[in-house]
Specification:
181 residues; alpha+beta; Hypothetical Protein Pfu-838710-001; 8-stranded antiparallel β-barrel; 5 helices; 45% strand
Length: 181
């Protein structure tokens, strides 16, 4: 299970300085292009909150089919499988009556500190964000661990975004009520 906390930021420089001070290891850069799919003619309420997408890493050329099932505002169960051909996977989904709804295009700078993954995201049409993620059991202890680390990085609690992911933010930008199932 993935537990994460996101925050909107205006400048990555102070966060990167704090990451270095705290001993976080720089992993590298990713450019992820996420295409979100919606089932045609399916009632939204039945699957509300679930996300089906193809994530393509433009730098590595790798792609995955992903289904995210939210457990609460902090955690989601993720099901992922590598795919060798993005276009074929997209065609399969379309033939199964899923339509591409929108794309999230982001550039990620990835850091690691112990079990925590820290990503600095620049997301087209949405802005700059930091995410701190942890794979594990969704407990108050793990939520506190993520929150405390975010605060150590200098991120203000008022900038935390809890329970709202990029797909929901994009819906607002596109003025759409639902685009996930």
């Amino acid at each position: 299970m993935e537990i994460e906390l996101k925050a909107r930021v205006s400048n990555f420089s102070p966060i990167e300085r704090n990451l270095k001070k705290l001993g976080a290891r720089y992993i590298g850069v990713k450019r992820q292009i996420d295409t979100y799919f919606l089932p045609i003619g399916q009632p939204y309420k039945k699957y509300r909150g679930r996300v089906l997408r193809i994530r393509y890493d433009a730098l590595s050329g790798q792609a995955r089919l992903e289904l995210h099932v939210p457990k609460n505002a902090y955690a989601a169960q993720e099901y992922e499988v590598a795919i060798s051909n993005y276009r074929t996977a997209r065609t399969i989904l379309e033939k199964m009556k899923f339509r591409p709804e929108f794309v999230i295009d982001k550039r990620r700078r990835v850091y690691r500190k112990g079990q925590l993954e820290i990503v600095l995201d620049t997301v087209k049409r949405l802005g700059k964000f930091i995410e701190v993620e942890l794979e594990g059991t969704d407990t108050q202890k793990n939520r506190k661990r993520i929150t405390d680390f975010m605060l150590k990085l200098g991120v203000k609690r008022k900038d935390f975004i809890i329970g709202i992911h990029y797909n929901r933010m994009m819906l607002k930008v596109l003025k759409k009520k639902y685009a996930y199932f």
